[in-house]
Specification:
- The protein is an alpha/beta fold and 152 residues long.
- Helices cover 34% and strands 19% of the residues.
- It has a five-stranded mixed sheet with strand order 2-1-3-4-5.
- The relative contact order is 0.18.
Length: 152
């Protein structure tokens, strides 16, 4: 019997998260997220400004101009995070994501972690670590399974 060269499910969905990230308009970091349930894609999201607004590539990045370190002062950013956009897209189109898995190429920040908890996500698979200790604490307390994808 021939060897199966297909990617694992984790590899398949993480590749999609990385592909989704290529749509970013953020000047600092390209993040993509894919929400999956029963091995079916429910929604995707990438980081960028709300629909119809001028992209940061045109306006510039206020956090960058002010020298704000990564992970701080999210409230002055024009954009939404990939996880937020994926949750919003699911809500906009009436897709129930409770019990789903999120594949995201960057570990969620605390704001996104709180949203994922309340959205009913039960597993998060991330690729790149992000230095947010409160996010890690809240996700651990919530019981959401969090796994780092290290490639195959």
């Amino acid at each position: 019997m021939a060897e199966d060269n297909r990617p694992s499910w984790d590899e398949y969905f993480m590749k999609m998260a990385n592909d989704v990230a290529t749509r970013t308009t953020c000047l600092r970091r390209g993040v993509g997220a894919v929400i999956v349930k029963d091995r079916r894609i429910l929604a995707t999201g990438y980081n960028g400004v709300p629909t119809g607004l001028t992209h940061c590539r045109e306006t510039g990045c206020l956090r960058e101009q002010l020298g704000v370190p990564s992970g701080q002062r999210h409230e002055i950013c024009r954009g939404l995070h990939a996880e937020q956009n994926a949750i919003i897209q699911a809500a906009r189109y009436g897709i129930n994501i409770a019990g789903a898995t999120m594949y995201v190429n960057t570990q969620p920040c605390v704001v996104c972690a709180k949203m994922l908890i309340n959205a009913g996500i039960t597993e998060i698979v991330y690729q790149n670590p992000y230095p947010d200790e409160l996010s890690k604490e809240l996700l651990a307390e919530s019981g959401i399974l969090v796994r780092e994808y290290v490639g195959e």
